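Dear Dr. L.,

I hope this message finds you well. Following up on our conversation about the binding site, I have prepared a predicted three-dimensional model of the protein together with guanosine-5'-monophosphate. For your records, I am including the exact sequence and ligand specification that went into the calculation, followed by the structure tokens. Please feel free to forward this to your student if that is useful.
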Amino acid sequence: MSVLYSASVIRTRVRELGEAIARDYAGREPILIGLLKGGVMFLADLFRAVQGHLRIDFMSISPYGPEGTGVVRIMKDLDLDIMGQDVIVVEDIVDTGLTLSYLLSVLQARQPASVEVCALLDKSVRRIAPLEIRYRGFDCPDQFVVGYGLDYGQRYRNLPFILSIPNPAALADDPGLLLPYLDRVGRT
Ligand code: 5GP
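The resulting structure of the complex is given below.
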């Protein structure tokens, strides 16, 4: 396994994304929508990198219906009414794009003024559902990744960097597998 994106590389990119959002939404007050749980760390950093007024809200979704459709059940809905508002959906990673494209259709039905996507990682080679990602952190290789909000079996979300895991199934057999590696590379 290896560090794909270090904490400082992530920090720099998140700052750039925040500056781009502040520039594009100058004079407006967009709502950043974070998706629980993976997008929380990214949202928290991105939020602080935007100079200007904005609001945040959260949604929690879980897969529902036949595999490959992207249909999700909303476990926690937004508190804010997004009708007539500028919305930016903040995602940790977009893979096939099925989940996000379904979610975008749900949000569009609420008649926001605009909806854009900000994704830290874009596994563009795996895309099935066409999707426009207005703000993209990194074009991510087709590898399984953990850290900076992303989990394997709810673990590793708290790593400040993003690791590429060549054989994620090995983690199921030995959940502590990464620990010696993490001790060696340190956590910053
Ligand atoms: P999609 O519908 O785009 O295929 O699914 C996106 C979701 O799959 C992400 O929100 C994330 O939960 C999960 N996912 C996709 N690739 C990875 C990965 O490399 N690592 C982790 N931890 N989750 C992933």
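In brief: The mean pLDDT is 92.

With kind regards,
A. P.
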